[in-house]
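Q: Predict the bound structure with S-adenosylmethionine.
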Amino acid sequence: MVMANSSINSVLHQGSMLPHEFPLASLQRPASFHSFSSTWAITNGALHVSPKRWNCSASSCCFRFRECRCRWKRIVRSCSTSEFVISNDENYSNKQVVSLTPRLYDYVLKNVREPEILRQLRQETASMRGSQMQVSPDQAQLLAMLVQILGAERCIEVGVYTGYSSLAIALVLPESGHLVACERDAKSLDVAKKYYQLAGVSHKVDVKLGLAMDSLESLILNGEAGSYDFAFIDAEKKMNEKYFELLLQLVRVGGLIVIDNVLWHGKVSDPLVNDPKTISIRNFNEKLMEDKRVSISMVPIGDGMTICRKR
Ligand SMILES: C[S@@+](CC[C@H](N)C(=O)[O-])C[C@H]1O[C@@H](n2cnc3c(N)ncnc32)[C@H](O)[C@@H]1O
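A: Predicted complex:
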């Protein structure tokens, strides 16, 4: 009964979305148009459930509830490939998974405790070229949380841009903490450095201007293998595997390596998308699945992050 209730609630929640609230991108892409019409069917269904129907007598309630539930399930299953309605897959015990709608994501963001300095940096970066590359506030909060849970003191970031994720990490490091921040673009690093200063964390951040591979290799040559607690990869996607191999040397057993963009705008699961970047991310995800050197958890946050723990 509880299951049934949550099932209905999930559908009603999705169903209460109005047609004008559907993501524009999904309307523009033929692949998602099917989802749109399916969801609209749910919307229609949800709007036609009268409260009286749920308050009927016990026996008819069960009957009607079952009847309704079947109907919902049928509808839901028919649109389980949608990017933004719930999936309800019998192969996974009918576990329902909610995809983020713009409204629900807005709710998630309202529940992020974004430090004021990060908000300012995000605002300043918004007008800059490449601002969409920044991790989202909920992702940054997760990174900071992981660093705190680990009690990390020594971290590495590959791909700094204007410093949003690195600042989120530096803010939660202890005073003795150390973050190696690798970035090849001097101009965006200038913004990052300004914000490290403003936030009073410059002493924790060791900025490495140049190609990340060179910086990581020189850390290894410097005898720093096994001395880092946490690493975040967010640079050239086709290089992910190479960064990962070097970071696996630099991170201690029990340390974490987090990789961003593992879902690559959803392209990784689309067999019709086969551009070089998508293929390389897809292949790397497959390799990680088989990699016994790490435990893994792929998290559908932002553009997807995989958290790897070195064994
Ligand atoms: C996705 S952005 C990083 C965003 C950043 N983590 C944030 O949340 O604001 C990727 C960055 O990686 C940098 N990058 C790409 N290839 C690189 C390389 N080979 N070495 C160093 N930095 C690189 C780019 O210049 C860009 O600033």
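A: Strands lie at 87-89, 95-97, 154-158, 178-183, 205-209, 228-233, 251-260, 294-299, 305-310.
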